[in-house]
Amino acid sequence: MINPWMRFLVWPLVKFLIAFVIVQVIVAAMNWIERRLLGLIQARLGPNRAGQEFALFGKRMPIPWGLGQIIADPIKFLLKEDIVPSSAEKVAYFLGPMLPLIPAFLVFCLIPYGPPPSFVITHTNVGLLLILALTSTGVYGIILGGWASNNKYSLMGGLRSAAQMVSYEVPFGLSIVGVLMLCGSFDLVKIVEYQEMHVWNLFPQLVGAFIFLVAMNAENNRTPFDLPEAESELVAGYHTEYSAMKFAFFMLAEYSAMTVNCCLMVALFFGGWSIGIGGYGITTAGLQALGIWGGLLGAIIFITKVMFFMMVYIWFRATFPRFRFDQLMDLGWKWMIPLALANIFVTGIVVLALGEAKKNYYWGEIVMSVIGAATIALTLFLLFRGSRPAAAKVMHASRVSEA
Amino acid sequence: MLVEYPKPKWTEKFLLLDMFEGLKTTFRQLFFEKKVTVRYPEERLEPADRFRGMFRFSYDRCIACKLCAVACPIDIIYIDVHDEQREVDGKMKKLKVLDRYDIDVKRCMFCALCEEACPTKPKSIWLTTKTYELASYDRNDLYFNMQELEYWDDRPRYTGLPEEEAPKQIEGAE
Amino acid sequence: MFDVHEMEVNFGPQHPSTHGVLRVLLKIDGERIVDAKPIIGYLHRGTEKLFENMAYPQCIPHTDRMDYVASATNNLGFVEAVEKLMGVTGQIPKRAQLLRVILSELQRISSHLLWLATHAIDIGAMTPFFYCFREREQILDLFEEYCGARLTLNCMRIGGMPDDCTPEWLDNIAEFIGKFDAAVDEYESLLTNNRIWKRRTVGIGVLTPEDAIEWGVTGPPLRGSGVEWDLRRAQPYECYPELQFEIPIGKNGDTYDRYLVRMAEMRQSRWIIEQCLPLIKQTPAGDIKAKISRVIRPPEGEVYHSIESPKGELGYYIVSDGKTQNAYRCRVRPPSFVNLQALPAMAQGHLVSDLVALIGTIDIVLGEVDR
Q1: How confident is the model at residue B25, as a pLDDT?
Q2: What is residue C139's predicted lDDT score, i.e. its pLDDT?
Q3: What is the pLDDT of residues A308-351, one digit of tens each?
Q4: CB 3.0 to 4.6 Å from B52: which of A166, A249, C148, C271, for a disulfide?
């Protein structure tokens, strides 16, 4: 028998530290990835000069692709002058950046990175509920930071951002209820195992996935919902008065929250660490049979999917304009919540009505998966079919009749 | 002539096709289009042939008519001439001799009206030297007198300069 | 005095959605704008006074710098006004006229590209900025090939053009306009149907046609409100009577309509250039200046001449006393200055976030507003 101290304290701590370090490396790299990817989308190169003069033992070894930016940015943040406004409320000012960090870091021990038992840090049966509860507490730091800066516009920006985050918590939570109805458990590991036995939750719960994606963007103050960050009346919102490391804390908290939300998205809707359908493919049992290497493979699959969703964040930022604040709140309360409630309603009816023949699958779930897959196929088809006629007709707007 | 207000079909509104169009465009730009950055100063763009850059002056061709100074909108060409009797082809002729030909380049807007006004063929003052990197640390560096105008060569050189625009070499220099 | 609920805020001379140094004094009630008063003069350089001390050919580089985004049309307005004063408008050779039209329309495209870039990035879409500037770079390269400068062109002279163009330049233009329609399609795929863009621009800043005419608004804001008035058709100049093009007009007078009008104008300008290219190949090469004296000394009189610049009606009022080589008085009617007066009317009842979109849609250039 393993020593209970080892099993319940030391091992999870070690695993958490490893996961934490990896995630923080991802978060630090996200800075470079975001700027580079934004640049490449915008027909220019992103950072490409930092690290060109790098030399080791007198021999010049230029770091390609501007990867030196990853090292240069933290050094800059550490060495910058820390300006504290004289009339700021000191305690709240110092607490402000740290409060969003704490839940953002804590949540990483609740997410399964690979197949149990070795790649899951804490295996609780209410994991999802805990994650939701912890991420909701990230709002306090923003309000505190905005208020403590003693700046009218920071305060208003902070309040706006807080209002936005709080009001999108509701669709965030409601969109998951459909998944819960299908999988029957709050445990993320069970949800992933369910998905590999049946089909990725994306297909039966297409509407839920969409709402979750939108709510995710709004929670993290990312375009198209980044009014608090980008313009906020006249200045930069709740983190205007912060410099150097405190600002870096806000950025860290934001990127960590982004990573957590992507991990949730992958685990809930995209199959976590498995690539399988109906029990075939890369499944948990298969990975567990391979021991530690299987677990590593699962973790790599998981991280790849998470990185894909981080890229989707950046993709959205490059493409869409931003909503005005009242339109943003409109969207959240008048469209997302009714849609999420309708999703719960329909899912519930289908599962109840058609789910009685419980052998290894639900008929209802098959029906929903087929509808979801058909919708995706229809969208792709309409998108790629002869863009010329569609474009000519739809974008005819400014093509005034050329005789 | 009325710009048409595009009316999307209900499938486009429902399936969010307009958002996906935008995503498709940016995706295509990311992978399939060329990036247009020129990494200055390692890579430089070469200006066109008619590019109006820094001046070059030729003392031999100049006939000291002062038309360039008259044409300049901001009066930054300072010319001093005096008359002299010189021996040309065995006869004494009255010639104008150029004493001072200074240009205050820091106030110049490179409009090339002086180049247009110059009556000699080829012109005695010309701007097609393809040089635009004129920054300097000292304000007085940008006040060019006659010698400097003819012989400056401390700015980047471009290939493909026409023969007459090529900077003159001072014997023994470089 | 003030109502208790109102706040006076300075949308200061330096702000991120920069179109120059414009200060707007806002009276806001919570988020709603009650009154918006633009305060200008931060870029005043005394251009009109300078004109009184310079000969007419020397004024041309200074007209470049008023609307620094579209300098060829500034040059064109001034040069045509002086030619009208001297009475030589009919003697400009055909090749020079076609060159002027090509340069004007290229400049119109480049100005509208800059407008689209800044308007989009104010509203939050950051990629059209870079795509528009990529096309604008190509246009600036074309200008550089023709007259030697990219931004402040100084490319027209009284009586004609300074230089003839090379056949390679015309080929380069043909290559550019061949690819331009696809580029505009690309910008439109990002913006025109996008529901977020429509939410930000439909119904914002509605300007009724009567209001527009009363305020003296000209150019795309006027045409976006539904009034069909374009100086290239109403008071034709150069060789526009021979060219075919449409005047796009809008329906509702909101920001979205002005956006559509300008996108359509870009396409129409491309069409105009496409028609000019074969015409210019038929004119004899080198015939680019009218036979007028080198010293420009117009007879005594006054003239007002206006052209359709990308921003609206750009007018020059020149008074000459017949004796000197300088103008006695040269007054410029800048389109942005007059269009900016409609800002308070358009901003009534909107939110502060909309103000940025409104300043962008009127398309002002502070160099022109302040001169």
Answers
A1: 86
A2: 93
A3: 999 999 999 889 988 888 888 999 999 999 999 999 998 888 87
A4: C148
Q: Sort out which chain A residues have CB atoms less than 8 A from B19's CB and list them.
A: 319-320
Confidence bin at B155 (pLDDT 50/70/90):
low
Q: Quick one: closest CA in B to C141, which residue?
A: B48
User: Residues for chain B: how many in total?
Assistant: 174
- Candidates C98, C100, C94, C53; CA nearest to C78 is C100
3-state helix, strand, coil in chain A (%, to 5): 70, 0, 30
The predicted pLDDT at position C338 comes to: 92
Tally of structural domains, chain A: 1
In a domain, A95, yes or no: yes
Give the pLDDT of residue A211: 93
Token readout for A164 is 């936005």
A316 and C CB contact within 8 Å: no
Residue A395: list chain C partners with CB under 8 A.
185, 188-189, 192-193
Mean pLDDT is lowest, of A77-91, C61-75, C145-159, C260-274, for A77-91
- The mean pLDDT of A253-259, rounded to a whole number, is 89
Beta bridge mates, A264: none
Structure tokens of C288?
């680019």
Predicted pLDDT at C105: 93
- Please give the span between the terminal C-alpha atoms of chain A, in angstroms, as a whole number: 87
Q: B56-154, what's its fold? A: Alpha-Beta Plaits (3.30.70)
> Does residue A395 lie in a domain region?
no
Q: A234–C12: do the CB atoms touch at under 8 Å?
A: yes
CB A149 within 8 A of CB A88: yes
Angstrom distances, CA of residue C35 to CA of A152, C5, C178, C212 = 21, 13, 46, 18
| pLDDT tens-place string over residues B83-100 | 887 777 777 778 788 888
- Residues contacting B137, CB < 8 A, separation 6+: none
What pLDDT, on the 0 to 100 scale, is given for residue C133? 92
Tell me whether residue A133 is in a domain: yes
- Contact in structure between A261 and A111 (CB atoms under 8 Å): no
**Would you list the domain boundaries of chain B?**
56-154
A382 part of contact set with chain C, CB < 8 Å: no
| pLDDT on residue C17 | 61
Rounded Cα–Cα distance for residues B2 and C264 (Å) = 10
How many Å apart are CA A403 and CA A176, to the nearest integer? 54
The closest of A217, A386, B12 to C194, measured between CA atoms, is: B12
* Residue ranges making up the domain that contains A96: 86-378
Domain assignment present for residue A45? The answer is: no
Residue C304: predicted pLDDT: 93
Q: Which of A227, A326, A402 minimises the CB distance to C271?
A: A402
pLDDT cut 90: percent of chain A above it: 13
